[in-house]
User: Fold this.
Amino acid sequence: VASSLPCAINDCTYAQNVLFGGDALGRVLAVDVRQRQQQQYQLCLNQAHMLKGGVNAVAVDSQHVYAGMENGVLVCLDRRKLSHVLSASRKSDSPITRIVPTANQGELIVCSSDGSCSLWTAGAEGHSISGELLGPDCEPVSDAAVHDLRGDSRGLLVVTAAHDGAVRSYRM
Assistant:
């Protein structure tokens, strides 16, 4: 028997028995899938936090939940308390389409609908751009994957897929 959430989810991710999702109303949701009732999974809406604008992309690391907004804002939330916004940073007004955490805590690949793809790093004032992979002259980035080769001193390998069907790879 399936349970449903009270809204349509634009993007979601799963970590440590919790499903995190974002919707067009700007809510970031956390659902603990371990809650059982009569031997069936009962999806219980644990937490919800309203943000300004719709959530297009969601990612998590061990301490944070990241929401990529349709207005270009990258929001960092405390994973233990989603109502606590730690920072909100913006590169442009272009909607964020994908967020991919790297192996380093607080470091993210952030892709946008203007075709840009950037490496963001956490700092005292929130996240800032520490590297640029693609400029805004490319097709919108629909997805990205990261392979961290820094332990082998070979850098960070980022592979992106775009609406034009092109798959691009970058080494930082």
User: Anything to note?
Assistant: The chain has a mean pLDDT of 79. Residues 29 and 46 are 7 Å apart (CA to CA).
